[in-house]
Structures are given as structure tokens and as C-alpha cells.
Amino acid sequence: MSSPVRHYVGGGFDASGAPIPLVDPVTGRVAGEVPQASREVVDRAVRAAREALRGTWAVWSPAERSRLLHRIADGIERRFEEFVAAECADTGKPRALASTVDIPRAVANFRSYAELLAGRGERSWHTATPDGRGALNYTVHKPLGVVAVISPWNLPLLLLSWKVAPALATGNTVVAKPSELTPGTACLLAEVLAEAEVPPGVFNLVHGPGADAAGQWLTEHPGVDAVAFTGESRTGSMIMRAAAERLAPVSFELSGKNAGLVFDDADLEQAVAGTLRSAFTHSGQVCLCTERLYVQRPVFDAFAAALATGAKELSGYGPMVSAAHRDKVLGHLERAATDGDVLAGGGVPRFGDERDGGFWVEPTVLAGLPEDHPAVRDEIFGPVVHLAPFDTEDEALALANAGPYGLAATVWTGDVSRAHRVAPALEVGTAWVNTWNLRDLRTPFGGVKASGIGREGGDHSLDFFSEPMNVCVKL
Hints:
Helix content is 40%, strand content 22%. By secondary structure, the chain is an alpha/beta fold. The strands form 6 sheets. The protein has a 7-stranded mixed β-sheet, with helices on both faces. Helix 9 (268-280) links the parallel strand 12 and strand 13.
């Protein structure tokens, strides 16, 4: 890792706290350590953020904040290779993925919000009054205050910057806590923000686990005005209970058990290639990955055979992030192998080198399991997809919409009318037709049911991180 893992509080770096080993997922070897923030460090970070709200940051104009976000993006680009190396070291993901998705997307997050902020206006209304003189009403957007940003281990920099950029754009101050498994790029981001001359206390960074540690102390802190979180639904529920005590607003992007629908009029070659991406990118460790795939019966056998062949031929994928997560995934696969059919994968690859000590799982295609089976019902978050047949459009929608989650879905069809019927009928935040993970950063992003609260992206994020105030002037 290019930089030591440290807290960043009030404009200064701090490495205090009991160390947690950082383990390389590729080899299973200890590669460093991350300090656990004490309650005192968390308190100090929140105080620093509160003081910064009353400092010079409070008078920065939107144009100045926009220029700052561009400087941060410039700083990430200047240190691009360091960010790629840190992302790969923490997560084990291939360089090809980190260098084409994670780090460029972080740059795009800061630039897109800089540009949105620069073009954002205020609304005003002329109001009639009985005396005929009228009144002027106009809206002022004010920051929420101190925002806690809790980001996960699967896309560490991308998802951290996805929240930090709009929070800073709208004038808030931030206390961020990345996953203790993947702290490297967050530390580099703190260095970039310091180089970009972000005022002390505007951005703070603390490390450590969630329960009974930095994450819990931060989300329960009475000095935190709002919480933005990406992670498991169960953790989101706990954060929501803590925030409810002080009526703090929350923005959650949570778990998913994403479905895909393949109709018999689809381009099967395109659908297979797209599903190999949607099921196995980052070894399935993306919240948007397809874990349930329903294929219309006339093409089920051909599609299943082609997908299984493609999964067996995949190369260049990465490991699970930790031994615990690998064991969770393998537990699902062991039970699935007993109760259903394993068309591809299902085990641990062997390399004959140091990777055999890492946390690897083969890309796996399952079939033949009932809908209430844990491998079909529960989020696995690994390189696993289950196939099942369907006959009618209504049946496909019922299968896809079943269950507690509703984050994303894919639809593969050659019928334009069907695409426009089926996609809006899916109970999800995002539906892709004949593609997957094609993102426009201006569009709303989030989930329904147990997959989230609120929307991120474009004006939706700027609105969440802002408090609208109406001013009425009698003329």
C-alpha cells in the first residue's frame, strides 16, 4: 500500500488505536494494519466537522465549492496509479477492473457534482396579495450539517466518493468511515483533499469496525445530522433506529437479490455475454450483480448450456474479500450442491502458487433449486447465479418481484413493446434492458423494499444533502 492507514481529523493525520490486520485476499497473507478509532477519536472528528461548519467553509460560494471538487478530481488523476494499487491490494480485484471502473468513476463523481452544482439555480415565485403589491418567495438551499458517510468494502473508493462529492458540493462537513477491510483508497482520498486545500474539519476520516466500534459510535453520535450508508439491509435497520432517536435523515443503498429475465425472443449470444458480466463482475461482489436468472422455457436448455460453458472459461476474476466471506459463499454452494444442480463451478480453484492461500471461489451456475431455497432467497454476494425456467410474461414478473429486495434487474428481449411493458413493472430501483450497469450519473439510483431508502445521483443527491428554506418578502 502506498500510504499508511491513518485517521484524518481536523486537518491532521493520526495513527492511534489498536491495530487490525489487513489481509491480502489474493494470497491470504497479512499485508498491513488499520488502526481502530477510539470513541475519543470519533468524538474529535465530529467536533472538528461541527467547528468547520461555523468557519470559513460556511461562506464558500457554490462556485468555489465547484472548483474545489474539480481540484479533488485532478488530484485523484495525478495519483491514479497509487489509487489503482491501493484498490487492488485491499479488495483483490483485477487491475483491469480497478483502472477502468473504480478509479475513473471516482474522478467522474467529483466532476459530475462540480458541474451540477455550477449549473444549479434557485427557484422563485411572485405571489399575489390582497393589497395588490405582491410578495416574492424564493428558495435557499442550506447544508444539513455534519454528515456521517459509511461505505462498504466491495467498491471502496467509488461508493465513498459517490457520497462525499455531493455532501461537500452542498456545503456539508463529513465524517467518513470506510470498511476496516478496505481502507487504502479512503486514506489516499484524505491526502488528496488535504492537497486540494479543503479547510480543516470539512472532511474527516475514521477507521474501525461497525458494531460497538467506530461505525456505531458515529451513527449514534448526537452531533451527526444525517447518515449516508451503503451496505447490508440488517445494518441499515440498526443505523435507522439510531438515527430515529434524533430524527436524523438517512440515505440508504442496501442489499439486493437481483433478478434477470431472458425471453425467448432475446439475442441469446448477447444475453449470455451480458449475464456473464452481470453475474460475475468483481466475482459477484457488486450490489447490482444478477443472482437469480429466469429464462423462458423454449430457450432455457440452450441458454443454460452456453452460460455454464462461459462461466467455466472465465479468467481474470478475483477472490472474495475475506476468509469469512469466502466461507459464507461456500456454505451456500455446499447446500445448493446437495439440493440442486451445479452446472459450472461450485468449488475453490487451484492455481499451484501463492493464490492457493487466498479467498477464491469458482464462478458458479446453479439450477434446479426451489424458490424458497437459501441460495435463491438470500443475498450471497459472490460469483453465483441460479437459473430457473418460466413460461409466461406474468410468471416472469411474479418470480422477479418475489422476495424482500428490489435493487436492480435486467431484461433481455428483442421485443421493444415487451421491454417497455416489463421493465416498469419490475419492483426495483433500476431496470436495464439488453445491457447491465450502464450508468448515467444524473439519474436516480437506489432500491425499493429492503434494498434502500431514498435515491442517489444527480439532483437527487444534492437534494438529500440540502435543507430547502423558503424566504418570503412582502413587496
